[in-house]
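Q: Joint fold for the lines below.
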Amino acid sequence: MSLFLIVALPFLGALLPGLMNSAGRQAVGGVTFTVSLAAFIGLLTNLPAILAGEVVQTGFNWFPQLGLNVTLMLDGLGFFFALLILGIGMLIIVYGRHYLAREDNMGEFFTYLLLFQGAMVGIVLSDNILLLLIFWELTSLSSFLLIGYWKHLEAGRQGARMALTVTGMGGLAMIGGMLILGNIAGSYDLSVILQNREAIQADPLYVPALLLILIGCFTKSAQFPFHFWLPHAMAAPTPVSAYLHSATMVKAGIFLMARMWPVLSGTPEWFYVVTTAGLITMVLGAVIALFKHDLKALLAFSTVSHLGLITMLLGTGTAFGAMVAVFHILNHATFKAALFMSAGIVDHETKTRDIRILGGLRHLMPITFVIATLGALSMAGIPLLNGFLSKEMMLKEMEKTYLFGPEWLVPALVTFGSLMSAAYCFRLIGHTFLGKKRDPESYPAKPHDPGPGLWLPPAILIVLVVAIGVAPFLAAPFVKLVTASVIGSVAEVPDYTIKIWHGVNTPLIMSIIAIVGGLIVLALFKPLLAVWDKTPRPEAKSIFDDIIAALLMWARWAIHPLHNGAFTRYAMIATIAILAAGYHAWTTGTVGEAVRAVQPIGWVEVAGWVMLAAATVGLASLHHNRLLALILIGIVGLMVSVGFVYLSAPDLAMTQITVEVVTIILLLLALNFLPNVTPEESPLWKRIRDVSVAAVGGLAAMALSYHYLLRDAVVAPISEFHLANSYKGGGGTNVVNVILVDFRGFDTYAEIIVLGIAALLIYALTETLLSGPVRARLLNRVPDKPLSGTQHPMMMVVLTRVMMPVVLMVGFYIFLRGHNEPGGGFIAGLVVSIGVVMQYMASGFAWAEDRQRFPYHGIIGAGVLIAGLTGIGSWFVGKPFMTTDFTYVRIPPFQEFELATALLFDLGVFLAVLGAVMLSLESFSRLARRAHIKDSDEPMDIDPSRDQAVPNTNPEGV
Amino acid sequence: MMPADELMNLAIIVSFAAVAVSQVLSMVRLVIGPSTGDRILALDTMVVNAIGLIVLIGLWQGTQLFFEAALIIAMLGFVSTVAYARFVLRGDIIE
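A: Joint structure:
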């Protein structure tokens, strides 16, 4: 199966569980499993190529200019991880289907899980490191969603946030590191980067790149000092803990270290940083794990410890270290996922995970006991189980590693870590399952073994644990194959036989010390716990919370003075900033000679200018009277429209006029809820300050325009291109319209979407207001002034009815001819919406609403869809999105005319504008309904024809 | 005898002057008020004058392009006047 399909299947399949939620839990679980199974089988079809040592590659260009291409690659390492992800994924899906309770939303859960699965498979199959980063971030996001799946749990929400903060920060660092790396290698493709070991390690930017990438890996794989998020992620449902936080996602960092091993490892920097971090993590995790009473917390810290162990092995930089790391990844994934699932079973059946309460479960839950015991013994490193093999090899590798201080330090520390590791494994078995047989009533819930849906998945993993442990030669060829693809051409695969008995050697002695020591520690557990409880320790969560709080405070301190919610503040800051930039440009730059003379001014222009200026000054000084301010705005709009006409921009003039009318209506609707007079709020000095900033800004803008009008632009403006190509390329002589629907069609498309969203928001706000406590106050408003008695005057009703067809005709005309003469969908939409609003104003909201057949949301949606489909249509003829085409047709008896796909696009614009304007006006007027005024079904108050037809109307209306 | 285009020019200049003066006078009325009704009517007169101004600009520049703008003002300009009036009379313009 194509690699694309393997990566895409979980993403596409992620839609299914959410959609099928109503089909029942069995169906949701089944479809999720099928999706994973299909991807798994697809992966297996590539097995022969992998076994033959080939690298399967496929890809296409996405953003070649950025070096971001969808190139996928499957080699031994990728195959190994993909096998773990999809294989364990299927077991987890079965387990999760039976684990989740009836009240949990299973569709949501499996959708997130498949999203994660797709992202994770994407990481391990990516050849392009930028693509890898995208998948990397996707795993952080899906992990966030899954940790916080139980939204009602505070711990879950906080744990999710912490995980996202830490891994997201690491992801950011890694982006930097990857960009540096790609820059050095000259390509973002792994296959190229991996060939450039010498160039990369010799580069002065090698160390920064290494550190940044390692921060990414360490945060993801919970290495010291970023290990603290993993235990808090345990608030997730247990299937998530087993899948993401032990078997797969936390191994993404390790995967990347293994992937980058050929180019990054082998230097002292790599050795010291990676090995030290791994060693500290391993020992620290093991010690903390021993003293945790929560089963999942114990397992979480043991995961931290084992991840440290693998990191440490990769850090040594030897081929043997890499081989042991690969082997231990396999072993850890099997026994740890099984252990998590058994912990989940215990939690599920006894309703507690506290080891102090548990004990004696051996008799009550024999199947679970066997599974958990075998898993824990393997983790402790007991022979005949797979954990023993990789632990022996690890000890062999570390026995001769020299880091700091005396030579025996590293071996001693590693032995100590293994000792503690053995101790917590024994404690897990001893304190949970062994002990006296107890009354089932003494647990929070009556424990018993669950159905096979819960125990079968971990049991399958335990079979693997035992099989590899007894017959290591089964796994050995595969481990060597993967190792070969990790180390690439840097070294030879070590000639080492993985077997149980190597004779009595140092690793075996260290191992025996660890196991015996572990038993002793368990015997002394009570006094040790007392000591541990008395020792002061830094609490990671409170430190993290303090750091976040400090950052928040700092951010507030920096932002609030700039961003205080008052528009005047933003305008002032922007004006001052632009002034400063302009001043800088003026003083440091040069200006050309004036090439045009100042034209003489006629007195008609002067009259217009004086009116505009007077209205503006009047507006600024009289704005406290709101209605007067609105009337003055009317003058400004009018004079600007005339100005547009005078400067030969009829399109703009028409738009300005129609927008003006709509704005006035909208503002008057809003003004209905506001007092007539704005109170004086700012002190005098503030007003003086604001006025002077505004005046300086205005003068500067005037000076700039004056200066610019006398000169030509330094670079030829794009308008030349538009003028030259409008008819030739776009088929229209109206350049403005061709720019809107063709040259910049994509912008227009985005703009109508934004317009639609804004209108929907107004609608949503209105609905929220009307469903809240404000509703009663709105309904019982009493107007503060006497009102005229006529609601729907006959004159106005008759006039607007007569105007309606005329307005529609004009709108249609303007719309159709927009491509060649002033007009177009935008203006037509405004014109028609004014025509409709007239009817609302004349006959009232209720009357007009009754006669409105299509909801305005639908009209907006139809507009956006039509515009979008027109754009997509060009794909079918093999052109890029939104390529337009046009042709000339002649239908007798008409003259020849032009048909352009841009017209369809313009229809979309028309509908979106119409819907958006109407929806916002309608929402506003919905707010103004009042309880004591009855909605009238009649078009007008006094209607002679109605009065004559039914002379004896009952005044009560019954 | 005066040639036709000279007469036309003269007519346009005189009309410009007349419309501009009446526009300024409407503006004065708008500023001094005294009632809101006066101001709304003044604005409406200004809209009518603006139509005249636009038609004159079209005549003067010899183009038909601007007549649509004039048409749209003539057709829709009254809506804002009605809205102002309804606001003063009823407070709620769509009820």
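Q: Anything notable?
A: Strands of chain A lie at 56-63, 68-74, 886-889, 897-900. Chain A touches chain B through 62 residues (CB under 8 Å).
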